[in-house]
Amino acid sequence: xxxxxxxxxxxxxxxxxxxxxxxxxxxxxxxxxxxxxxxxxxxxxxxxxxxxxxxxxxxxxxxxxxxxxxxxxxxxxxxxxxxxxxxxxxxxxxxxxxxxxxxxxxxxxxxxxxxxxxxxxxxxxxxxxxxxxxxxxxxxxxxxxxxxxxxxxxxxxxxxxxxxxxxxxxxxxxxxxxxxxxxxxxxxxxxxxxxxxxxxxxxxxxxxxxxxxxxxxxxxxxxxxxxxxxxxxxxxxxxxxxxxxxxxxxxxxxxxxxxxxxxxxxxxxxxxxxxxxxxxxxxxxxxxxxxxxxxxxxxxxxxxxxxxxxxxxxxxxxxxxxxxxxxxxxxxx
Amino acid sequence: xxxxxxxxxxxxxxxxxxxxxxxxxxxxxxxxxxxxxxxxxxxxxxxxxxxxxxxxxxxxxxxxxxxxxxxxxxxxxxxxxxxxxxxxxxxxxxxxxxxxxxxxxxxxxxxxxxxxxxxxxxxxxxxxxxxxxxxxxxxxxxxxxxxxxxxxxxxxxxxxxxxxxxxxxxxxxxxxxxxxxxxxxxxxxxxxxxxxxxxxxxxxxxxxxxxxxxxxxxxxxxxxxxxxxxxxxxxxxxxxxxxxxxxxxxxxxxxxxxxxxxxxxxxxxxxxxxxxxxxxxxxxxxxxxxxxxxxxxxxxxxxxxxxxxxxxxxxxxxxxxxxxxxxxxxxxxxxxxxxxxxxxxxxxxxxxxxxxxxxxxxxxxxxxxxxxxxxxxxxxxxxxxxxxxxxxxxxxxxxxxxxxxxxxxxxxxxxxxxxxxxxxxxxxxxxxxxxxxxxxxxxxxxxxxxxxxxxxxxxxxxxxxxxxxxxx
Lengths: 333, 472
Ligand SMILES: [Zn+2]
Ligand SMILES: [Zn+2]
Fold this sequence. Notes:
Helix content of chain A: 10-25%
Strand content of chain A: 15-25%
Oligomer: heterodimer
Bound molecules: zinc ion
Structural class of chain A: alpha/beta
CATH class of the largest domain in chain A: Alpha Beta
Order of helices and strands of chain A: EEEEEHEEEEEEHEHEHEEEHEHEHE
Largest interface: A-B, 24 and 28 residues
């Protein structure tokens, strides 16, 4: 029997249901796991995503985009193929896609994490025969520290900057990471400001009902703002731009799973690196595979060959599902 | 043990000296006396790991529970073996980690390899790095000057006495109480060095010394002996016994400034800061130099101050290379030691050399530290290793070129055939017996790639030596 989902030049395709999942080219019907740029591309006729994620998806793809929101767990039937979305714990509205046809169940995880994050709905394991799992950090080198301990380090860095009279510029991807950072820091230390790109996405989070501490867009800050006590959350890439000049004296930090390794921290343009990731690490990846009960695993996006070989040796039918995901990776680590 | 590792990490991440000091101050403020002493000993005292790299890797491999191929592949993906082992030992075991003093006693003492790893397994993966690094025979790269400043601030003692105590500790294992015992004899240096800045173009009313290649040091004669200190508070070894005898003949309580040749055999002294307990620093340079001349004897050298009109200084600078110097240091004859304006280095014009690319060493993820050679007969001889002056795009180019054209690999170095020619500006060279070309290029930068030149157009060692004013 042909695979229920297979790769085509447009992306992952379900022939029986005639839809694509996270296609990288414009297609007729796209099911989108989440609104990050390497998963949600413009130009398709119709999009289907979780209700929680619809707001940010429209922000990313334009207000005219034809988006059909569905509740988590609510099944849709597309040409006889049952499709439902389930929380992936990655960012607001991120979903795993469950596809069932003729008694065969596939789950496409999209990006996901199983570690707790108060700004998103927690990952829910879904049983399936075939699991298409991301493996951005699928190497035994990656084991995340406890996020609470990492946030304590961020707070300590902020406090130290405040006493030294320096603004604290904390960089993380504007959708997802930035809001997790806002939700995790201690707002008692000083005022929090947001880069405009971050502020837009943060508004979408609030509209979706996520409770986050107060924060002011940098654009709305009075001219005489005392930045030395402030934490400014900004997307990576602002370093060295004229936007930074207003802060005069500042320290920069970058929050990402990549910061787990010394080499990455050394190559970093920022002063500090904090290990806050919205992806699964090695133990969580193996745990998710186990909990899915899948006999077949198709790792994608990351250490695909390594994960496939390891799982094969564990007795599973595993082979990489190569996709060009990651070619436009936007630092979503 | 986790807190100590955090301090090492914060120190490494710190973008400036002030924050490097803060990292250690934070550690020592919260450390017990026993832990603080153990930390200092672990950072500065010599110590040889009882375990080989192979034994450590095998033991972690056994504990990691991963297939061999996966373990090896993951290890290769880490920044260094210490990081790879730290992470592959797995998530913290959940057992309570001992205090630093107890933990280090286990790692340094008689425990088995299994015992050492059992201990490290209790730490967070990221906190294991400094311990694995030293067990693997590596260094942590913590500056004694930063450590001294942090301890001095926490314990309210003078930084100099702490630095001296730490240096003593690098020969034997110090106890924490030594900080206070050492605090009494702080009078005799090393003292703050006079500031030196690059020449700014204003040269009126100045005298000069030649800028000799080598390390700027203070020779401190105290009641026990003579110790040479570098500007960053490291002790520098004098290797010639004749030189050491001359330094020991100085009266106790004497501090001189000089330049020690790279092989530690030759010293030019240029200033006297203390003589037999008397502080000379407020006296004008001309007077200090006269006192200095009365103090030194062979083989210490004390050249005369160059006194010339500005035009004459320019000529002296042009001829400096012929004397083995690399320029002038402009000073004022009437100024106190360390007074404004600061001394100014007026380097000789760099000597331009056309050299061929021979190897590139792997740096942060790419082969970006090139070694250039000049011809010695029909053989290219390695000459200068520098990436200074190379823009990002040229570094990428070198990275791609050596990857695609490597003829030999040795460790982190890829060798290519001598085909690409670069123009190198050489500012400072030291004679060296350890380098095949007979000199060590201490300061140089790449001017540009010369695609218009053939490898045969690159310079020969003989022409380079002639241009640098060195004997052939
Ligand atoms: Zn994502
Ligand atoms: Zn992604």
